[in-house]
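// run 5 | inverse folding | seed 20
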């Protein structure tokens, strides 16, 4: 195997949603550094054109149901050339966890994900300002009830605890001052939903309901508004560590590493709070390049990785996209509806008996079906032009084609035993060739349900 292809396979599993070997080979010709540079600058590429998608999926046009909003997002995760933009949106969705069960208006949820796409790689300061003015977040944390004469601390507390600094880096009085700074940050009164469905709303800064008096926050004093408070927050060392820890957890490992996280925190401070600069440091580090197959895929990542390899839902004309949110939910992750304000508990907690059965069934079905265009292509790349192949060669080819994968020796031996051990498959006529292609599809399915495929 080509070491450059292996490295880019690792990068695309973490910075994207994986890719088949054919795509990795093309990327390897450009080189790792160039691929990282393109990932970090998604504006170089067009976003997916959704007009055709809406033409063939008319029921998803107005985002009337959570599943429809989530299905559109799965389509973009599987097809967008701006793939890190989608991956970073998924990360922020888990950190700035907002749930549709309370928000109920899916246009707001869709707009929040759009905001994560637009600002998720840029300035953390700008991202927090946009978050504080986001209608879904305002409603989720009750800031529309945060009034000058009766402050509501919900948003202020979560901004400090879960969105920026973390417990132990501020006082209860800082929470109170934060609530006061964000009084009057609300949404425009909505037109009633019925009879025509949901209407859009927008952020409003109600000066008449804002507490403009002097505040003391993290040792500084002034007539702070919300933006000025965020200016103070983003330059705190605690915020740098918070951002570093969250990014390390999402892109590298659930097991903290103080030295690596300190490097990312410094990149945050040196880069004027730019998330792009933190990720650039991460992707070029040796510790990232070496952290292969040590992180459990989330359900959303598993679903997208599987459909990309299977070559499914690449066209807006393809029927059945609406099932993907349900599949992800069965694996334990309901997009647009995190279980709590803390988001999802990740890592090994993704794997339990029920969730694992859902993973195994979905992956084996999609990767073992030669009717799926991606699998047909992979099988042809493995078999065509050959007249024989050993079990070892077949497994090596399957692992490579599924994104330059790796399995432990014990897994390899189990797979070999399933196919009769060290045997030589011969397929010189069309009948034998077709029969062997079914064997290869079966091998792809089994590799897909192995422990290592659940890792990235």
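// decoded
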């Amino acid at each position: 195997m080509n070491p450059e292809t292996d490295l880019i396979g690792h990068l695309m599993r973490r910075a994207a949603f994986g890719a088949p070997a054919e795509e990795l080979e093309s990327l390897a010709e450009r080189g790792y550094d160039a691929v990282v540079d393109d990932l970090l600058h998604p504006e170089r590429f067009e976003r997916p054109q959704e007009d055709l998608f809406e033409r063939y999926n008319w029921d998803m046009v107005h985002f009337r149901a959570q599943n429809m909003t989530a299905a559109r997002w799965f389509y973009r995760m599987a097809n967008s050339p701006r793939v890190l933009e989608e991956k970073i949106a998924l990360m922020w969705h888990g950190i700035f966890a907002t749930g549709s069960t309370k928000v109920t208006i899916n246009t707001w949820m869709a707009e929040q994900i759009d905001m994560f796409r637009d600002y998720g790689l840029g300035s953390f300061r700008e991202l927090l300002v946009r978050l504080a003015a986001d209608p879904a977040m305002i409603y989720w944390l009750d800031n529309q009830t945060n009034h000058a004469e009766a402050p509501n601390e919900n948003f202020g507390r979560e901004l400090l605890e879960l969105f920026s600094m973390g417990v132990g880096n501020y006082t209860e009085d800082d929470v109170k001052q934060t609530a006061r700074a964000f009084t009057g940050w609300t949404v425009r009164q909505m037109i009633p939903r019925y009879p025509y469905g949901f209407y859009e709303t927008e952020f409003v800064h109600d000066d008449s309901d804002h507490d403009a008096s002097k505040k003391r926050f993290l040792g500084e004093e002034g007539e702070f508004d919300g933006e000025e408070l965020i200016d103070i927050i983003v330059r705190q060392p605690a915020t740098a560590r918070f951002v570093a820890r969250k990014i390390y957890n999402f892109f590298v490992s659930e097991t903290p590493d103080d030295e690596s996280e300190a490097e990312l925190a410094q990149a945050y401070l040196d880069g004027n709070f730019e998330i792009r600069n933190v990720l650039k440091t991460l992707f070029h580090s040796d510790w990232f390049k070496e952290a292969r197959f040590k992180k459990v895929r989330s359900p959303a990542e598993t679903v997208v990785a599987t459909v990309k390899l299977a070559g499914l839902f690449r066209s807006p004309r393809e029927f059945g996209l609406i099932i993907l949110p349900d599949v992800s939910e069965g694996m334990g992750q309901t997009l647009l509806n995190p279980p709590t304000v803390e988001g999802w508990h990740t890592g090994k907690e993704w794997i339990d008996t029920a969730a694992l059965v859902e993973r195994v069934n979905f992956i084996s079905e999609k990767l073992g079906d030669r009717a799926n265009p991606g699998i047909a292509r992979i099988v042809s790349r493995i078999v065509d032009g050959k007249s024989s192949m050993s079990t070892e060669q077949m497994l090596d080819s399957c692992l490579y084609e599924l994104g330059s994968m790796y399995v432990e020796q014990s897994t390899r031996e189990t797979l070999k035993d399933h196919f009769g051990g060290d045997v030589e498959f011969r397929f010189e006529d069309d009948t034998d060739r077709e029969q062997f292609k079914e064997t290869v599809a079966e091998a792809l399915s089994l590799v897909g349900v192995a422990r290592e495929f659940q890792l990235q």
